[in-house]
Amino acid sequence: MNSTMKVTGVVIFGVLMSFTLPHLINLNTNRSFETENQRETQTEATTSSSNEVAIAPTPKDESGTPIEQSDPVQEETPVQEAPVQEVAPEPEPQAEPIVYDGMTLNELAEKLERSLKSTLDGTGMSFAKYAVDMGIDPYLAVAIVLHETGCNYKCSAQVRECYNVGGMKGGPSCNGTSYKKFNSLDDGIYSFMANLKENYYDHGLTTPELMNKKYAASKTWATKVNNYISKIKAA
User: Fold this and answer.
1) Any idea of the CA torsion for 215, 217, 218, 219, to the nearest 10 degrees?
2) Which pTM does this prediction carry?
3) Dihedral (CA of 167, 173, 177, 181) sign
4) Domain residue spans in the chain?
């Protein structure tokens, strides 16, 4: 009797298990599936929230109307200007100095030139320069030359052939005469001016009247020289 009951109990248990076990397995499977779905949903939510860009809320006025916002002003990068190079001012041209009778050297040369003719044409600068350098009255020097050589019209042979502009005597001889011969016209002018300085001006003989006795035997020499001085000044 006990054996039969045991067998019967085992059979009944087996039948019950055959009906119950599949339900238990399905329930377990459904729970696992739901748990897995929940995990995936949470993962997607986390990923989505991390990828979202925070957008600032649009400001609104009291009536709830959105307020338009202007674009932020971008600061301009200051442009660096190239340094300005200072240009040195050009030196002002210096005025020519006054050398005689309110005139510059060039003006004096031009004035003398108006009285120098024939062979002496173009020698105004030589007379002006040597007179200023040696401290001699240029009007007086040219007046003596015009009187001694006749160059107010046509120069004498002494000037044309021997470059003797002041009737100076000495050697070498000019064509066998007692008058001196010079190598060039400028050489003759310089020697004449140097003779006036050394033998007359340096001894205080600075006017035709003071020079007359030593320079020429004629007593009217000074008067004639003064007449030429007046013409030169008026030219």
Assistant:
1) 80
2) 0.62
3) negative
4) 99-234
